[in-house]
Design goal:
single chain; 7-stranded mixed sheet; alpha/beta; about 325 residues; 3-stranded antiparallel sheet; globular
């Protein structure tokens, strides 16, 4: 369209980066002719200290995508199969297929959560990895942390478990829901984290993986490690990591925009899945592809999905002006 009023299809943080991160980017430019060995190492040390892990358990990357790719390449060997929910974030499973492995899809529960019992039942001799996106994308549902910990303790001795925590910062108590403590206890679990969401780094590209030393060493062979992170990005991430005021403010704004969307959908006669992330999914009364096309004509970008044979829409949470643009366009079509 001539003007994209609301970019609500990529689950980004539309409130941008915090002032500390912005200043860090500007300050880093002066020395960015040099390789950023020191600042990246400082960022690694900060993460290692905060998460109470060993140096050998951390693998830095440009966002979490390289970690997902490395896992896909490693676990697809010899035709290995990955088990995941359906629908769920499909980056890792799709790449497993690309590299000669298989993808075993398990339907969600009745309340649109990952079905851990059904996933466990699908494990067989070909299973090389279990992929858990929590909170899940695109449904924005989150698993009970005690239930997921019990699952990890029971299943990880048989099959490695990859827990993608891209959206965990949107929970009220991220630490309580994170499975990093499973890694600390020696379980065969890999955690993926990214600065792309609440920190607002989708275009700066900083992320990391945490797991047992042997496995992280194997995954590192498929990556460029910390040398894929620029001086500006590493400096910004270091500044943003402890910027509690900014993160709290961005979360509050996200919640306000989400509540606006909830009220709109209710007023228009739509149900929705309560969201634990920065997007909301709801069932449609029309063809999803047509809705996406018509909304884009009105300058609003969204995503459509097929779930249980029906058309659904996923709307990323934007600034209030973007949510108002969504509301104006949606009312014309709903």
């Amino acid at each position: 369209p001539p003007e994209l009023k609301a970019r609500l299809f990529a689950n980004e943080n539309p409130f941008g980066r915090g002032d500390k991160a912005k200043k860090a980017v500007a300050a880093a430019l002066a020395d960015s002719y040099m390789y950023p060995f020191m600042v990246v190492r400082e960022l690694e040390s900060k993460i290692i200290s905060t998460e109470s892990i060993r140096d050998s358990q951390l693998l830095m990357s440009a966002g979490s995508s390289p970690i997902l790719l490395a896992a896909a390449m490693h676990f697809a060997r010899n035709g290995g199969a990955v088990i995941s929910g359906d629908p769920s974030y499909d980056d890792l499973p799709e790449k497993v297929k690309r590299f000669g492995g298989n993808w075993v899809k398990v339907p969600l529960t009745g309340d649109y959560k990952l079905d851990l019992d059904a996933i466990e039942k699908k494990i067989d001799g070909n299973t090389s990895l279990i992929y858990i996106c929590n909170p899940n994308n695109p449904t924005a549902t989150v698993l009970d942390p005690d239930r997921l910990r019990a699952f990890c303790a029971k299943v990880s001795p048989k099959v490695p478990i990859f827990v993608d925590e891209a959206y965990i910062d949107y929970l009220d108590d991220p630490k309580a829901y994170s499975m990093i403590d499973c890694v600390q206890k020696g379980m065969n679990v890999v955690i993926a984290r990214t600065f792309s969401k609440l920190h607002g780094f989708a275009g700066l590209r900083v992320g990391y993986g945490i797991g047992q030393p042997d496995l992280m060493n194997q995954l590192e062979r498929y990556t460029n490690g910390n040398m894929c992170i620029s001086a500006t990005s590493a400096s910004a991430a270091l500044a943003s990591y402890d910027d509690a005021d900014y993160l709290k403010n961005a979360l509050q704004k996200t919640t306000a925009s989400k509540e606006f969307l909830y009220k709109l959908l209710k007023a228009e006669g739509y149900e929705y899945i309560p969201s634990a992330a920065n997007f909301v999914m709801f069932p449609l009364k029309m063809n999803g592809g047509r809705l996406v096309e018509e909304m884009m004509k009105r300058g609003v970008g969204i995503r459509d999905w097929k779930l249980n044979g029906k058309d659904w829409c996923r709307v990323s949470i934007g600034r209030m002006d973007q949510m108002e643009a969504f509301a104006e366009a949606f009312k014309q079509l709903s």
